[in-house]
Design a protein that fits this description.
mainly alpha, two-stranded antiparallel ribbon, 2 strands, globular, disordered N terminus, binds benzoyl coenzyme A
Amino acid sequence: MYGGGYTGEPEKNQPQAQDDPVLLAEFEAKIDRGEKIEPRDWMPADYRKQLIRMIEQHAHSEIIGALPEGTFITRAPGFKRKMALMAKVQDEIGHGQMLYSAAETLGKTREQMFNDLLSGKSKYSNVFNYPAITWADVTVIGFLIDAAAIVNQVINSKGSYGPYCRALERICYEEAFHLKQGHDAFVALAAGSPMQRQMAQESLNRWWEPIMHFFGPSDKMSVHSERLMRWKVKLASNDDMRQQFLNTYVPKIWELGMTLPDPNLKKNAETKQWEFTEPNWDTFFKVINGDGPCNKERLAVRKWAEEKGRWVRQALINPKEKYTLPYA
Ligand code: BYC
């Protein structure tokens, strides 16, 4: 076991009661009244399964998401940027811990979740399978990926599962600070020398499609949205979240005199909807299924950490035993 706390063993009567229409009606009525579902409440097996999938995927994204930025701590320009980046990376790991705890309340152990990440069974966010090549990439992650995450998480924090919503509320406070530091670092480049502006522009060009992918496939392709929205786990569709993001952040990019690599990107004055070139969804599915530019590298780092840190976990569980340190 990797962590303590409530393991979320389903109540004894639950497996038999899964198809009970009365319990299901009560459950759905509770959600309709805007009440939260808590770990020991009755819930349909599919609600539990969907939440585990989504929260676990989110937790893995926070942990893996720390990797591209983490490699820049030693290279961040100046002491203040280094300190801010270090604090941000630590926060992301903390978010992972909170989310693993929330997923544990549904009955999946942390060890199972880690194993599923390392075996490639569980997914994590597409965006973290791309490399951070320059400092500008770190500023784009901090500004736009954190902004995208906030759009998604503020919405999800109003959802129906108590432990996930409470974790998200806290995460959103910290993400709001991350966004400020990312925006500040991005603006410094955008308002800097021609070379700095060029670096920021190239980074925007590289990251735009992964960011468009971040909200998930378009609604007509989304597999889980309908059920998740019925149970108020998701309160906006993938397309709605993408629109919200475009609405707030495209003007902020344009006002800096930067461009986005989509000639069709514009807000339709009549429909008030953003129009854009459909991102390549084949690329998206390839990346989330393990064949992106950095998937192998990301998992290799996690496997290394899992092996080298095993003695610490064992020592915590059984402090009296003797362990061979991996570096001895
Ligand atoms: N990446 O039916 P759909 C952060 C998968 S961390 C990978 O629409 P759903 C940060 C989806 O799982 C924040 N896979 O799915 C950290 C499904 O595959 P499976 C990360 C994706 O669940 C450090 C298939 O595509 N945020 O910001 O209804 C530093 C069909 O999709 C993605 C979260 O995890 C993707 N982007 O909606 C800085 C938020 N999108 O499972 C920043 C929580 C879709 O059937 N998650 N897939 O094999 C969600 O809100 C929802 O799961 C999504 C997708 C909106 C992402």
